[in-house]
Amino acid sequence: MKAFIFDLDGVIVFTDKFHYQAWKTTADSIGVYFDETINNRLRGVSRAESLEIILERHTGILSADEKANLMEEKNNIYRKLLDTMKPADVSDEVRSVLNKLRQMGFKLAIGSSSKNTVFILEKVQLRGAFDAISDGNNITRSKPDPEVFLKAASFLGEKPQDCVVIEDAVAGIDAAKAAGMITVGIGDAASYKKSDYTIRSFAELLDIELFKEPK
Ligand code: B16
Ligand code: MG
Questions:
Q1: Tens of pLDDT, residues 115-145
Q2: Looking at residue 209, what is its pLDDT?
Q3: Average model confidence (pLDDT) for the chain?
Q4: pTM
């Protein structure tokens, strides 16, 4: 293994509560029912696809402009919430594991669907922890398509088969497998059968026997 590619939301930081608040306000503004169960379906899914999931409960038809306005409204609310983030929002455990992996000589990258990746990393002072960032701004197809992870490997100058992906979303594990990478599931993805390895805490990443055959 030469490199580790980390998903952002649900792995390094936990911004799902902010996504929820922002989508809830936006859904309320057009009278569409939205709750935390529906919010769980938005994990790892792009902004545009998230809106389509929310609009499953909308009776009328919205134009492309109306949808773009709703996404902008949601993102403005979300960015205000992200603006409250600070370095303490990343655990010492996460920082310590990233430092240890780097000391061991591994390259580190982010592979996220979010277009707010750099903003978030700067707020929590982790921008410098990664050698490359592949995110929602450099892809045309979102997870489960492998594009975001293949671009991350390419930015790092590594072959896909030499990369390990750490993901919390089922769509993210599918994307990493489609890219030919080794997968580590955490959170929701810890119980997903396509995860080659599962971890219950971030620190367990250092205990995985990555050089043995996966289960
Ligand atoms: P944005 P990840 C994903 O981040 C989130 O899990 C998902 O809920 C969100 O819709 C998506 O980013 C797009 O985010 O609106 O900021 O571009 O898990 O891929 O790091
Ligand atoms: Mg995620």
A1: 999 999 999 999 999 999 999 999 999 999 9
A2: 77
A3: 95
A4: 0.94
CB of 17 closer than 8 Å to CB of 36: no
Tell me how far apart the alpha carbons of residues 194 and 24 are, in angstroms, rounded to a whole number.
Answer: 31
CA of 10 to the centre of ligand 1 (A): 9
Ligand 2 ion: residues within 5 Å (CB): 7, 9-10, 44, 168-169
Q: Which of 9, 15, 197 is nearest to 110 (CA)?
A: 9
CATH (one of 3.20.20.70, 1.10.150.240, 1.10.486.10, 3.40.50.20) for 16-82:
1.10.150.240
Distance 41 CA to ligand 1 centre (A): 11
Ligand nearest to the CA of 20: 1
168 annotated active-site: no
How far does the centroid of ligand 1 lie from the alpha carbon of residue 16, in Å?
Answer: 8
* pLDDT single digits (tens) 82-91: 999 999 999 9
